[in-house]
User: Which sequence fits this backbone?
């Protein structure tokens, strides 16, 4: 059971996180395309093009789907996805003219006047959030190994406090809250992603130690009371 969260942790921290941070770094460093450069479908530079809005779909509740279908550019025409309806998408109507920001063959954002909205394709600096999820997956894997070691030893003194209800569930909840408490402020404040595991792991280890001490004390007190 520990293998699955361990693999998920590896994928997030070693693969997905590196890809996302590299893509965001390249996007923020990209320069505007020269005006005299021939328009290509895939470009490393950032290009501004004009689109005509063909259709807008706004669907909230459980079927979160916010899209705009645009056309009129040499390339990149089609349906664009957004994470929410505002500030621009909910104001658009069929036939409106908008300005699109294009990078590496994808539309990064649409703008009308001073109102701009990012599409789902625009790279975002969300590395601390991914690091928080990956850290939590790693902690879940470590917790599973800890429980497995306690079970395999077969020692009553070691195993009794290590039950799902007594220790596992509270630790899973506590670790999730700790990872979120570190990752969310880090994302909002622009703190490097590696700070998240550097802070969350020691805090989680200390919390696990305190929980374990408390459960062992309870188990010992109960045994003494029965005797």
Assistant:
């Amino acid at each position: 059971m520990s293998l699955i969260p361990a693999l998920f942790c590896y994928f997030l921290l070693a693969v997905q996180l590196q890809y996302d941070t590299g893509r965001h770094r390249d996007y923020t460093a990209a320069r505007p395309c020269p005006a005299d450069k021939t328009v290509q479908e895939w470009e490393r530079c950032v290009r501004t093009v004009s689109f005509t809005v063909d259709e807008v779909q706004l669907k909230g509740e459980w079927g979160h789907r916010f899209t705009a279908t645009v056309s009129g550019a040499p390339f990149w025409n089609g349906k664009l996805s957004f994470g929410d309806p505002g500030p621009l998408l909910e104001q658009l109507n069929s036939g409106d003219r908008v300005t699109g920001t294009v990078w590496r063959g994808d539309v990064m954002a649409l703008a009308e006047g001073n109102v701009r909205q990012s599409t789902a394709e625009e790279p975002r600096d969300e590395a601390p959030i991914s690091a928080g999820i990956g850290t939590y997956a790693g902690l879940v894997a470590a917790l599973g190994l800890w429980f497995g070691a306690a079970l395999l030893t077969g020692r009553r003194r070691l195993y009794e406090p290590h039950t799902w209800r007594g220790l596992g569930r509270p630790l899973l909840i506590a670790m999730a809250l700790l990872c979120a408490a570190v990752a969310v402020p880090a994302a909002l404040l622009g703190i490097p992603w590696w700070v998240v595991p550097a802070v969350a792991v020691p805090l989680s280890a200390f919390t696990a130690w305190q929980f374990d001490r408390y459960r062992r004390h309870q188990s010992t007190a109960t045994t003494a009371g029965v005797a």
About this structure: The chain has a mean pLDDT of 85. Helices lie at 3-29, 127-153, 156-159, 164-189, 195-226.
